[in-house]
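Q: I have 913 residues here and want to know how they pack in 3D. Can you give me a structure?
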Amino acid sequence: MDKSHLKISRLFLIASAILLIVTYPLAIIPSGFISLAYHISIPSFFILSLFSLPVIISGRFRPNRALTFLIVLYLIPLIYNLCRFNGITIDSVCMLGYFSIPLAAAIIFRSAWSGSENLERDDEGKFRVLCNFGFYFWLYLVVHGYWSLTLGEEIVSLTGNRNWTGSLLLAASPWAYNYLIAFFGRATSLNQRSSQRRIITAASFVLTAVPTFVLVYHCESRGAWLALAAWAVMILFYRVIDCLSVLLSRIKSLGRSEKVAVSVFAAVFAATTVTIAVFGVVYLSSPRNIEKLSYAIKSDVRVPLWSSTMKLIRDNDSLVSLATSRMGSSENRSSKSDAIRLGVGAGRFTTEFSAYRSRSTYHDRLVAAPLTIHPHNEFLYVASQLGIVAAVAWLLALLPLIRRPKADSPLLAAARLSAFLIYFHGFFDLVLIRSPGNILAFICLGICWRDALCENKRPPKMNSGTHIQKAAVSLSLLILLCAATYVSFRKIATERYIRRGLLNEAFKKYSAAFDSYMKALRIDPDNISCHLFAGAVALDRLNSPASAMPILLRAHELDPNFGHLNEKIGHGFSMLGMHERALPFFIRECKLYPRFPRAFQNYFLSLYLNRDYERLVVVNDFLVQLYCDKVRLKFQEGELIKKIGEWLTSVEQNNVNRALVLAEEFTSEIDKSGVDPLFHSFTGDRRWPANWLRGRFEYVDFVYWRQMVLLKRQTFDFAKGEESRDNINVSISKVVSLLKDRVAIDHGNLDQKYPARVWYDQEGSLHSTYWLLASIFYQHGFSVWIEIDTDGVPVSCSMEKDKYVYTVNLTDHAVLTSSVANAEYRINRDLSHKLFLNPQEFWLRNQILGVLINRYGPPASPRFDELPLLRVISLMRRQGKTPINSKDQFREYFFTEHIEGLAEQLKSHPQVP
């Protein structure tokens, strides 16, 4: 078996070395030459998990009793879940690799050194080979990292993520360090003096550490730095223990001067410890520092992820469920009927976790992702899929990584450090399910397991059984090779078409993109991502819901909680006019993403299309609060108030660019591309530029803001006062008197001007003046509408506030104000009642900005935070109208004669008042 084992071992090591570099084959090409490099990958984790099995079977070393016990504890739930669910899958093979890959590596390295009497010699050759490979691997990471820095890009190297790259750089550096020591040693002599060795060691450390730490700093990987700090603390702890042991054993034989020196050292050490503790207390006693620490914790996704995952474990692990029920926990709501539950099963975390995530505070984070594939903690990840016993067994198998380093060989020291850095990072991120970091970690852990193996004492006998065993190993290896080749080909081919589809989308070749996604689906019919990509491009880009819906509904059968799939299906049914069928999918989307504004925006629109006007107000109130909560995740409240003050100043001072930049900054975390559903009823058949409707803030928005700000500031002192009926009458009288004294009404003029233009020109038509009056009172919290006679001439302006209605007539010589109780008010049926609105009021981006300005701005801040749809519904209720059956009937509530003139002004970018 030795020869066959040697061949299989070489194949395994070669495969590991190759996959360590080419898991993402396009990532080898330096950034700047290729895009979407990480959309094509080789299933390295799966391949090595398969290849580790014949290595284990054919090897003459086996794990000792302790390691065997841990492996059995891990395998029992894995095999049980295979029988309980769908049998062997790629994910279950990968879960097996958590133990099989390190065990195969341990067997290989134990076999390689089994005949050597001195394992610590650097010139044995085998360790030199590892260091050579490790150095060039590290060198590639460093060169690629500085190349990315030069181009101003993120440092992602072979991993596709800067956080994972940080720990991979640190883990590769010990091998480069050992390579440089050996290289400088050979360059000088093999018998250096102690001073030469110290110089070589220092030079090797500097040449390795400096470029590595610079790149890790730019990676901004907190997990990588935390792992390195944990390693340093552990080593320091062991060194202190060793020093104390030596001192205690020699304390009686020390002279007086030596005892004084020891006492001084102990005093300095104690003083340092106390100083650090006092500094920590002082730091945490500062409210500002506590606020920073609290904000850092609240803004991180890990705490809600861990909390929700523990609930998932509790509900899907019989042992944990029993323990919590014995402890009297009232939160155990598991409704599972299985007699024995050992986790949710390999590969089922994403599907099962959706319900738990939606009930957590996870979505109250800016970086909340639509799909959760990992809880950012490897122990919880294993426990959720295989149960707590398997997770504890896996954790205990890592104990060699924290063993006290005594007289470790350079090989063992480098392997332990590399594995520790990545495994420790795995408790805060998903580095252990992402290649190539997990490959390096597993191999290095295997080296650390080398001493946990024992040799099979039975001498090999050449008989028929031996030949059968050889044939079985060869056959199993052939089958594994075929399986790995098939899975790799299928995965690479699928990802190739997905990448091609994404590139076609980027170049706006939507038909070609759809075809590429469909080709990917034909290779992998159960790939939910392919379904979603194909359905989305057919729906959003090709406007073909008939093509999209079968694909999206098939994806819904595979996983009803996947990503934003429910949102797409709801849109598809809406485009087909099937609004009742769309509503349940939008409701489900809101349940899955309870802090996601777009989900509730779609729900709001669906309620309108289903003519469910009662719930619109409730959903709108929730959205208003959600906008504020979302922005507070990015800004501290004091900072937000300061920036809104800066925005108001920019608008007043006609600083267009600064105002637009600040508006985008306020609303950057919220989808603001929508438009009030009444917009097209308001504007009729007129076509508007798409960038005005669904784009970023533009100059035309600034024109609208400026008139709102100027009107509110100019009339604030006249309208402010206590909110009583008498005071409101006085305020209305003051505003109307000011308006009539300031503006000359030209009854023969039909021109439509912006309200602020009428104010500053001090003249305008009757229509424009009523528009100005409506804008002023809307700014002060009134629901306002204009009453129009049969000739289309405005007669009066009615304003509602606090259950009272106030009416103003601008055509009389005297100022007329009246207020009557809401219950007594009767609308004149001979008049039509309409709203003056700006086109910008219909745009969601202005509504969101208006919410923030109104909530966090000073008292004189402008108001533009109410959807026109809600204002129309309020007017309908005021008139006692029943809900409208057709959205086109809403048009009768708009004063639309000014639309064409405003559209021309918007096109020509009018001068700001």
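Q: Anything worth noting?
A: The mean pLDDT is 82. The chain is about 65% helix and 5% strand.
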